[in-house]
Amino acid sequence: MAPSSKGLKLRSARHKAARAECSKRPRCVRNSWDSLTHIRRGRSVRKDGAEGHTAVTLRRSAVLRGVRAENLNDRLASYLDKVRSLERENARLEQLIREWYQKQGPTGRKDYSHYYTTIEDLQNQILTAAVETNKILLDLDNTRMTAEDFRTKYETEYGLRQNVEADINTLRPLLDSLTLSRTDLEMQFESLKEEMINLKKDHEEDMKSLQTQSSGDVNVEVNAAPGEDLLKKLNDMRQEYEQIIQKNREEVESWYESKMEEVSQQVHSSGQELESSNQQISVLRRDYQSLEIELQSELSRVGALQSNLEDTERRYNMQLQQIQGMIGPLEEELASIRCEMESQNEEYKMLLGIKTRLEQEIAQYRALLNEGQHGISTSQGGAGGGSSGGHGHGGTSGSSAQGGSGGGSSWCSRGRSSGGSGGKTSGGGGGGCGKASGGGGGSGGGEGGKGCLSRSSSSHSQSGSCESPGSFRRSEH
């Protein structure tokens, strides 16, 4: 019993040192390689000691598996605690994010709908003012075009007036010459009339003198040729001159009347044209003055509208700057919120990656534990049969097989099973072992009792490891 207790103490010391070394490491570093190395070491130990020290090696490997299972159980529990704490932290962060969104999220934004209505009203007013301004500009263009048309008409009429005045000025000397010729003709007519009167007087005097001469009583007879009749000649001359005078008078009167009619017609037509031109000039002057007044009024109205438009644009620009100033910090706040969301999302993704890695490690540990459990169960059955067969010197192969089955059942039931065939072959050995027995003869029974006691002590030392799979299953569930 002394060598086995020393071996157990050494193994427990080694396991404590390995556990202390493993506890010094971070839990995230404790991966499946430790368990794999421990399993490999256990397997190598089993292979190396299979020839000479089969029972000791099997016990050592069983103890190592139990310690390893306990270590894996502790690590798995710590990983599960870490996962639960990370889930709680994730839930807490999600709750904080939800509360922050409820406090400062989109629901807490300011309502700018009334500003939108006022902005729409102001935009409509600006549009109406722009339309009115365009109408006024069109009216101004139309009035400017009409003013230009009237100006061209005025210039043409003014040119016609100047032409008429020039014609009148050219006709005035003709009128003067006609008046002079008329006065000359009148003077000639008067002089001819006076001459005719004088001739009539002279003729009457001559007639009277001749009548007085012919009225005397003296008869003078002259035997001569009869003379010419002077009276007849005078009458003929008078008639001829009268005809010439009458003819000249008629010609002069007809010429004078024709000229006077022409001049009067020209004067009348020029007077009418002058009056019409004066009327048109007065009308155009009145129209020009009215258009000038309208133009001045429209220009003043345009100036007022432009000043109003500038005032409204200035006011709206100020309001727009204020709104943009309000939008700037809101955009900055939104950008900061987005940055925080991205950082929290990255943290969440990182935690999710850690969680997935932990789940993968847990699955790997679970597979290793299942494999270790399967190996422990198979190796424990083989170890029990080998010990009873090795120490039962007087037993047969059948008793060793029965002892092997009894040993396997005694390991799983904490050393309380009995080897049936071994007890049948050796009563002394059964009394020495208590409830467990090994096969063999008298001396072999004593050795079997020793082996059974050591087996019971090893089973008592591994009571925790026998319960470890159940505890692992409880923590796993």
UniProtKB/TrEMBL annotation:
Residues 381-409, 417-451 have a biased composition (Gly residues). One of its GO terms (molecular function) is structural molecule activity. Residues 452-471 have a biased composition (Low complexity). Keywords: Coiled coil, Intermediate filament, Keratin. The keyword Cytoplasm does not apply. Residues 69-103, 175-315 form a coiled coil. Pfam families: Filament (PF00038). Residues 376-477 are annotated as: Disordered. One of its GO terms (cellular component) is intermediate filament. It comes from the Eukaryota. Residues 65-376 form the IF rod domain. InterPro entries: IF_rod_dom (IPR039008), Keratin_I (IPR002957). This is Keratin 9. It comes from Gallus gallus. The lineage of its organism: Eukaryota, Metazoa, Chordata, Craniata, Vertebrata. The gene is KRT9.
